Amino acid sequence: MDWLWIPFALTAALIQAMRFMVQKQMAQAGLTATGATWARFLYSLPMIWAALWLMVWMRGMELPALGDQFWLWAAIGGSSQILATVFTVMLFARRNFAVGITLRKSEVLLTVAVGWVLLGEVPGWGGFAAMVVGMVAILMLSGTGGRLRLDLPSATLGLGAGLFFAFSGVGYRAATLEVASDDVLLRPALALGCVVILQNLLMLGWLGVRDRGEITRVLAAWRPGLAVGITSFGGSFCWFAAFALQTASVVFALGQVEVLFSMVIGARVFSERLSGRELAGIALLIVSVIALVAATN
After folding, report:
1. Residue-wise pLDDT tens digits, 193-245
2. Cα 53–58–63 angle (5° rounding)?
């Protein structure tokens, strides 16, 4: 079971790259960054709870009680993820698809710091070294055409997204640990279902006050919304399952392979070309991922 977090993290990274592709298309279709963010939570909500109910019913299980600590961590993780996703969608308007994903990957080392402060969890020296190598690869992938093209707004959005994703990952890991169950599927599924309810309430309240017209536009965009919901459901469950089994910093470090997936998607869907610098960064990133898995197993 010590290795089960690896396929969960890899699957989550692949599905997340696909989800951001759809969210970018939704943003291009006229939705605001906030609207495109709410769409993922809105359309995934019924899918998550239908799957949770089916799991409990078929296996004859009962849902465990959830304490105040669970709801505190769920609120921290859920609200941080909202802000991180909004920043990421805003970033897509400034940079190409693959670089937009790359810039927010500062989450890996930021999660080490946040996990240490909030939960006292730190990776071993081998794992940390692999993370640093991975971040070097990420910096190489941030440059296109042989030069690094970072402007202040893009860097701010990328670092902001990375920081909020760090808080969300640590919050989600803490929330899953508060679920009183040893079941490897029930813990992440229940935590995810509760978090998505909180996120929908927060975003619906925000849009109701600030932009009621966006609520109508999100509901009208139900076709791409369903695609976002499906990918959000699958990706989020896999992230939560990985967090339940491994520290958030290590999970996010392995999740850097999302950059590779996003580059393939960017090339195939958005006709984005890869430079020699990016190809070298890909090779270095693969080395760091292999080293990370070896150091944590």
Report:
1. 999 999 999 999 999 998 899 999 989 888 878 888 898 899 999 999 999 99
2. 50
Whole-model pTM?
A: 0.82
The answer to whether the beta carbons of residues 15 and 234 sit under 8 Å apart is yes
For 129-165, b/e burial (b = at least 16 CB within 10 A) is ebbebbbebbbbbbbbeeeeeeeeebeebbbbbbbbb
Quick one: DSSP state of residue 30? Answer: T
Q: What does the CA dihedral 88, 242, 263, 133 come to, rounded to 10 degrees?
A: 100
What CA–CA distance (Å, rounded) separates 48 from 282? 33
SS3 148: strand
Cα distance between residue 157 and residue 143, in whole Å: 16
Total residues found in the chain within this entry: 297
Helix pair angle (186-210, 222-245), 10° resolution: 140
CA-atom Rg of the chain in angstroms: 18
Q: What are 239-271's pLDDT values in tens digits?
A: 999 999 999 988 988 887 877 777 776 666 656
Q: What are phi and psi of 185, to 5 degrees?
A: -100, -40
The residues pairing with 144 across neighbouring beta strands, listed in sequence order, are 147
Look at the block and give the residue holding tokens 């308007």. 93
Which residues fall within 8 angstroms of residue 136, CB to CB, at 6 or more apart?
284, 288
3-state helix, strand, coil in the chain (%, to 5): 80, 0, 15
CA distance linking residue 286 with residue 152, whole number of Å: 29
